[in-house]
């Protein structure tokens, strides 16, 4: 009997909006140019934040030290406001009848899991970079996710970054590029899963 397909979904840009508006709001709240804030974040904080190398409180402390005038309560609210549901969330129930669902996301578990709330029960495996210790496209996070998948099962991986898809393909996974601005990609999922089943 063939193994059930496995549908592995990124979160930001696939299930929820990416955090782009959060960084823009932060720059506005901090009174600093967006490019300057993003450059400093990438240089000092990106790796530790997404890999779980620091705690979530450490991130807010870093922001406070880097931009002393920044109101952290407003920054936290900007983060929550930036994570809006995308249309793919409405397809999860239907997709779960065709495949086992998984999440593989560069995110903070503290931020992501509450946003998925009652939908968590639909997922067989959840791999979040802040818990895994690595972030895409590092092969080690794919290995962590693959350990939650039945050996030999066909996998369809959906992500909004081509580099992450290329890394997944080295594991023999089928891939689909998502587009946050155009949910048309969601119509391709069921036919692809049926072909893999």
Automatic annotation (TrEMBL):
The cross-references to InterPro entries, in alphabetical order and at most eight, read:
HAD-like_sf (IPR036412), HAD-SF_hydro_IA (IPR006439), HAD_sf (IPR023214), PGP-like_dom2 (IPR023198)
Report the PANTHER family cross-referenced here.
Answer: ALPHA-D-GLUCOSE 1-PHOSPHATE PHOSPHATASE, FLAVIN MONONUCLEOTIDE HYDROLASE 1, CHLOROPLATIC
NCBIfam families, per the entry:
HAD-SF-IA-v3 (TIGR01509)
Indicate what this protein is called per its UniProt record: Haloacid dehalogenase superfamily protein, subfamily IA, variant 3 with third motif having DD or ED
The taxonomic lineage of its organism, from the top, reads: Bacteria, Bacillati, Bacillota, Bacilli, Bacillales
């Amino acid at each position: 009997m063939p193994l059930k397909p496995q549908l592995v979904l990124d979160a930001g840009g696939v299930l929820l909006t990416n955090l782009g508006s959060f960084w823009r709001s932060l720059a506005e709240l901090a009174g600093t140019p967006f490019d300057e804030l993003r450059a400093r974040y990438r240089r000092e904080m990106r790796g530790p934040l997404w890999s779980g190398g620091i705690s979530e409180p450490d991130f807010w402390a870093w922001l406070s030290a880097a931009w002393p005038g920044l109101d952290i309560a407003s920054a936290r609210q900007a983060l929550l406001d930036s994570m809006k549901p995308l249309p793919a969330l409405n397809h999860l129930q239907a997709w779960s009848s065709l495949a086992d669902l998984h999440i593989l996301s560069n995110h903070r578990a503290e931020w992501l899991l509450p946003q998925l709330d009652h939908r968590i029960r639909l997922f067989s495996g959840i791999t979040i970079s802040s818990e895994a210790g690595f972030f895409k496209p590092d092969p080690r996070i794919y290995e962590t996710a693959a350990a939650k998948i039945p050996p030999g099962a066909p996998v369809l991986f959906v992500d909004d970054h081509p580099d992450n898809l290329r890394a997944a393909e080295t594991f023999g996974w089928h891939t689909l590029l998502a587009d946050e601005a155009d949910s048309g990609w969601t119509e391709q999922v069921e036919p692809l899963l049926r072909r893999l089943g």
